[in-house]
Amino acid sequence: MISRNNYNLAGKTVIVTGAGSGIGRAIARAFLEQGANVVVAARRLETLEETVEGFPPENWATVVADVGKRADVDALVDASITAFGSLDVFVNNAGTYVPGPIEDLADDEWRGMMSTNLDGFYYGVQAALPHLVTSHGNIVVISSVSGLRGDWGQAAYNATKGALNAMLQSLALDLGEKGIRVNGVAPAFTQTAVTAGMGSDEATLAPFINRIALGRPGQPEDIAPAVLFLASEDAHYITGAILPVDGGTSASTGQPHT
């Protein structure tokens, strides 16, 4: 089990974008372990099938979708309603990352990050909102500590995550009167396929470990329980929060550990 706690999520319907690997896969499997109906979305069917492997087929649906395309996101939400009749939680996890100095960033790389990291959330909220109003559901956004402060060599990525954080907090204000909560989870360095080229050995991992109070990089299974909590009734009075799940990375002023 990914979570040590049990949540009353049986019969709830959850969409998880970017669920084909990494953090999204762990989130989807965590909800499935809790008995929720989970609709997993990503660009490749084979990765989604790996995510739901071993779980009862009546509890999941796979949807191939590019969240940067409105038609795909609309179809994803429609497929969720067709499969399970309602929508209770929308987990906006899909994201992409292109590092490098701003002068070397190509226009298509900029647009790609904006499309996946920000447009996908915009389309998802618009498509899911009518159903979340009915269910008094909630939204959980996977952001990043990189949306809270700056980083060297990734100004464009941080811009998308910063915009995502501001958007989710504004939506929490706008949607509270409709009974919808909106919260975010902000990981720091987490070992996934996206970060495979970073910290690939002891020497390159050391600078990251230097900044992590708990002394190890994050794993997708470290992030998923926080999402379960924020989506659950235990968080019924929490909205507009951005919860760092970063091993203590953001507790530092930036001074190196000696």
Structural class estimated from helices and strands:
alpha/beta
Approximate helicity band: 40-55%
Name of the CATH architecture: 3-Layer(aba) Sandwich
CATH topology: Rossmann fold
Give the helices and strands as they follow along the chain.
EHEHEHEHEHEHHE
Give the distance, in angstroms, between the N- and C-terminal Cα atoms: 36 Å
**What is the averaged pLDDT score?**
94
Overall tally of structural domains: 1
Sum up the overall morphology in one term: globular
- Strand order, main sheet: write it out: 3-2-1-4-5-6-7
Sketch the major β-sheet: 7 strands, parallel
Number of helices: 7
Quickly name the level 1 CATH class.
Answer: Alpha Beta
Q: In percent, how much strand structure appears in the residues?
A: 5-15%
**CATH homologous superfamily identity:** NAD(P)-binding Rossmann-like Domain
Uncertain runs are: none
Number of strands: 7
